[in-house]
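dude i think i finally got it to work??
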Amino acid sequence: MATETTTYTLIDGKKVAAQIKSEIVETVNKRKAEGKKLPHLAIILVGDDGASQTYVAHKVKACKEVGFHYTMMRFADTISQEKLMKHIDHVNNDDDVDGFIVQLPLPDHISVEKITEKIRPDKDVDGFTNHNFGSIVSKNPLIMPATPFGVMELLRRYNIETEGKYVVVVGASRLTGAPLSMMLTEQGHATVTICHKYTQDIKKYTTHADILISAVGKPGLITADMVKEGAVVIDIGTTRVEGPQFKNGFALKGDVDFNAVSAKASFITPVPGGVGPMTIASLLLNTLRATESRNP
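look at this
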């Protein structure tokens, strides 16, 4: 458990996300006053997955908060891959749409990779296409994967130095761990090790990390004995844990044993309220960037 001598700084993703939204509102209002095009985000939701509906509702709410236009398209989970691709073509060719996302997961009969690659890279504000994934190693990527972008923004706004630091990323997913590792190397000038489910003795790496990031989705994976004294700890993993002991019947848990690890950390993110809010803020930033690139 954390002791009274704990001096960690809590990295407040809600607060930073609110700051970013406020900055976006200023930019949108300025564009409006100058008669310029306002950002327009299109969202496709397939099926009635409860979590997906919640995520989409948050994204729509965020669009309203910052003054973006948005288009919401819902389809039954029986839609064919071919029909869905035709709808994507339509949005790709709509000049008024600046940003475009297809909410994941998709039904089993639809290929996530084929659908993702169908989205125009300059409208892919989730940053999932191979083009945008690869552009991370360029000097000026226009659109970056939303969650890793959010983590980088948290580090920047909390003045956490990455240059020359040793970073360990636990979790090598195509959506989070892998692109974040590339961003930390290319933009953060850090030395990065990626650990995954095939890594033997993960603790051997994590105990040396100046910055430890976990993006696995396994509650309690990172314990205090795996963390170096004074490390920065970023918890991306978010898992819904159900049980009668929770007020609403469930709770969101991170990969990090927060109470124990916070006693050793210099900076640490909570779950919820850490990286989560930054993903939507990054999505909005990507949409604004896409708008500005085509309509300066």
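Confidence is low (pLDDT under 50) at residues 1-5.
im so relieved honestly
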